[in-house]
Specification:
Number of strands: 9
Number of helices: 7
Distance between the termini: 15 Å
Radius of gyration: 16 Å
Structural class: alpha/beta
Strand content: 15-25%
Bound molecules: guanosine-5'-monophosphate
């Protein structure tokens, strides 16, 4: 059976990766499976363990890391985030296309290990930094201090776009999701003709 695609969706915090992920997951043509990450961050209102994230203690996270259970990981504004390796491999070996929605340092780790056409990296950028700050503030989930930290981080993250196969501007979530779906579909078609 043909191995499924690995699609890395990255970009600064607040750029809208989560919203776009929801659009992507609804599309029946690409039939993506979302890789649920592990994090030491506390759940936000409405977030569900095992659906949005696996919420773990710092000790559990470091233990998974020590036993090589993570495909990539990063510390992001005081918390750890990582992608469980076995789950992603299992899905891909079953022929399923898997979506990783991760920040830039983790994305770079996966990109550095990538060596086939079955892996695509996409960097989502905001129309402007002002727009990004408006979106982070609009979420009303972070304190002023955390907003400042996330904005400072975003400025650094935006310089990383050269690592990626594709750069997509999130002008509106529908447009950006459609652009990404077309990228994925063109890879699936290319694979079928090879
Ligand atoms: P948030 O706290 O807003 O849910 O996530 C913070 C950042 O961590 C976001 O940019 C999000 O995409 C990223 N992230 C979520 N899961 C992972 C993961 O497994 N690995 C990495 N490297 N980043 C992640």
């Amino acid at each position: 059976m043909k191995k499924g695609l690995l699609v890395i969706l990255s970009g600064p915090s607040g750029v809208g990766k989560g919203t776009i992920r929801e659009y992507l997951m609804k599309d029946k043509n690409v039939n993506l499976q979302y890789s649920i990450s592990m994090t030491t961050r506390s759940p936000r209102n409405g977030e569900i363990n095992g659906k949005d994230y696996f919420f773990v203690t710092r000790e559990e996270f470091l233990n998974a890391l020590k036993h090589h259970k993570l495909l990539e990981h990063a510390k992001f504004v005081d918390n750890y985030y990582g992608t469980p390796k076995d789950y992603v491999e299992k899905l891909r070996n079953e022929g399923k296309n898997v979506l990783l929605e991760i920040e830039t340092r983790g994305a770079k780790q996966v990109i550095d290990k990538m060596h086939s056409d079955d892996e695509i990296s996409i960097f989502l950028v905001p129309p402007s930094l002002e727009e990004l700050e408006k979106r982070i503030r609009g979420r009303k989930t972070e304190t002023e201090d955390l907003i400042k930290k996330r904005m400072a981080k975003a400025k650094r993250e935006l310089k990383k776009e050269t690592f990626y196969d594709y750069i997509v501007e999130n002008d509106t979530p529908e447009n950006a999701a459609n652009k990404i779906l077309n990228i994925i579909l063109s890879h699936i078609k290319k694979d079928e003709t090879n």
